[in-house]
Amino acid sequence: MLQEKITQYTAEINAFSTDHADELEQFRIKFLGTKGIIKDIFDEFKAVSPEEKRTLGKVLNEFKQLAEAKYQSLKDLTEVADTAKDSGLDLTLPGEGFEVGARHPLALVRREIVEIFNKLGFIVAEGPEIEDDWHNFSALNFPEEHPARDMQDTFFIKKGGEKGDIALRTHTSSVQVRMMEAGKPPFRAIMPGRVYRNEAISARAHCFFHQVEGLYVDENVSFADLKQTLFYFVQELYGEGTKVRFRPSYFPFTEPSAEMDISCTICKGAGCQMCKYSGWVEILGCGMVDPNVLENCGIDSKKYSGFAFGMGIERIANLKFEIKDLRLFSENDARFLKQYKTSLI
Ligand code: PHE
After folding, report:
1. N or C: which end of the chain has fewer CB within 10 A?
2. What pLDDT, on the 0 to 100 scale, is given for residue 345?
């Protein structure tokens, strides 16, 4: 009898809900009042047999707690609703929602570059942004007082350290030196990172930018390996059918050296502003690692050879997104940044 009543009332309590204070008060009087159901049930309980008492006692207590807990939680709710009403707030209005952030376009492009080279077995290597002369210049075959050092306008920090003047690195080739000094061939790595050059800030130049350089050193590495690696990279990044061409160039740390152009990604070679109506755009410098550089890093240049390349991430991003002003990358304007949403987490 008693058990049945409790089951029935339990269902009623569970189903009950309101955010009106007066309805809640009715609930309180009905169940928890001095003449309420719980009081009645407890009175009835006094009359049951001692065996029944043992099992029913627990059920009864739980029932009472349920009624009290329900009352308390609805009381909090009605209070919030009342305060909201008093202050003119409408809690039924939809919430304001918040925007999910976006990755920086340079981070997106760097990630894409890293993923492509990962597929070819290149690992990622990193190094310090504050470098000494040895790692940024001398080990890379830039002779002392040689005009090649002026190719990269350097921000110097301190004159004369143990390994020469301290400066902000002008390229991540310094990481290649650190890697070769610290290990043994074969090396197959890319070096993404920020680099600094003392240039007046404009739409086309900035005092810092981002690079990905790459290095592959092993026995019998040839210029053909370099070409095929970079060709594969470009097909992956800009799509199949993108053409490449190599033009002879000069870097102190590579011999022979080249600059690589690709068919313009914007006009597909027809001619546009981006490619200055030539159909081609330059995207990177590369070459076979100069034997002097290998020897400077303690590697036997008779046994080993290698290739290296380096590109600016901003440039690669421009050719993907047609961003005309370099300054946008570092101004942190949310209207610019949020255009480059991605499904990549
Ligand atoms: N370090 C060169 C630069 O910053 C790029 C480069 C790297 C060129 C490796 C050739 C080989 O301009």
Report:
1. C
2. 43
* Ligand 1 midpoint to CA 159 (Å): 25
The pLDDT of residue 182:
97
Cα separation, 345 vs 334, in Å, equals 19
Q: What is the DSSP letter of 140?
A: G
**Does any ligand 1 atom lie closer than 6 A to the CB of residue 309?**
yes
How does the average pLDDT of the chain come out, rounded?
A: 91
What is residue 287's DSSP assignment?
E
For 284-290, what is the mean pLDDT?
98
Residue numbering of the annotated binding site for Mg(2+): 255
Q: What confidence score (pLDDT) does residue 48 get?
A: 86
The preferred substitution site among 173, 197, 230, 305 for testing ligand 1, maximizing ligand atoms within 8 Å of CB, is 173
- Long-range pairs, 6-15, Cβ under 8 A, ≥24: 6/41, 6/59, 6/60, 6/63, 9/37, 9/63, 10/63, 10/66, 13/66, 13/67, 13/70, 14/66, 14/70
Q: Which of 194, 212, 213, 254 to mutate to test the pocket of ligand 1 (most atoms within 8 A of CB)?
A: 213
Q: Whose CA is nearest to atom 10 of ligand 1?
A: 286
Q: Which atom of ligand 1 is nearest to the CA of 289?
A: 11
Round to whole Å and give the CA distance between 129 and 52: 80
Give tens-digit pLDDT for 298-312. 999 999 999 999 999
Rounded Cα gap, residues 103 and 3, in angstroms: 61
Residue 215 Cα: closest atom of ligand 1: 9
Nearest-angstrom CA–CA distance, 333 and 253: 38
